[in-house]
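task queued by scheduler; priority normal; single chain, no ligands, no partner chains; default sampling; output format set to structure tokens
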Amino acid sequence: VPLIIHRDYGLPAWVGDRTLVIAASQSGETVETLSGAEEARRRKLPLVVISTGGRLGAAATTDGAPYLRYEWPGQPRAAIGFGIGLVHELLVNAGLLTDPDPLGPAVESLESLLERNALSVETEASPAKQLAWSIFGRIPIIYGAGLMTAVAHRWKTQMNENGKAWASHEPMPEANHNAIEGSLNPRELSDALYVVEVRDPGEPPEIAARYEVVEELLGERATNRSVVWAEGPSPLARVLTGVAMGDLVSVYLAILYQTDPTPVTLLTMLKERLARATG
């Protein structure tokens, strides 16, 4: 069963009455999610809401739509565990997942990663802190393929929101059709960039070969480079450890920039101005 993430207003044209729409917003006030949920109601499509409340939760309560509510006072990006856990339970109860405990091994891998990169661990012993130092003062470009494509995107957004820093991400193998050519100029900025390859030990040989060739071709134009291998015995475990590593690096990067990783002042200002502009 395909699971497709939609980050826009409304719903894709192909969505039909056999499509389950999961409207997820931590605050319940994300306008794109509200728009999609409203279209699902108008078209009488199957709808499940995941939120802490807000207008999204209120509408679900009024309509009697299935509503998976949780409590989380922190930033939405830190509520990823609720999103994964609740969607997992939803799919299990719908009979779409057969593994009774895919989260168990993943949690064990996460706990190990967090212990080895905790705040109390010295930089020399913490890969997350070491990578943050390497990225500090540079613009990270995050590469990911297959399962790691979404992980690389998460790294990019966490560098933005936690690290308050510019960042970019490149999905493989698509990057081999365009981004590789863009590495030629401007040459004087080469040292201002830092390439991070977030990789899966289970990646197919075709992807491994692409990474090897890209490293050869970039050569001296991308000497600032690190490879981060996701950990864990299962695909889900490797996705979550890949995500957690990026989260840790982004927080340590914020510390190096002497900024608080928690507030998102510019995002808040943007939402307020959009609300005024759109009524």
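post-processing summary
- The mean pLDDT is 94.
- The CA atoms of residues 68 and 194 lie 40 Å apart.
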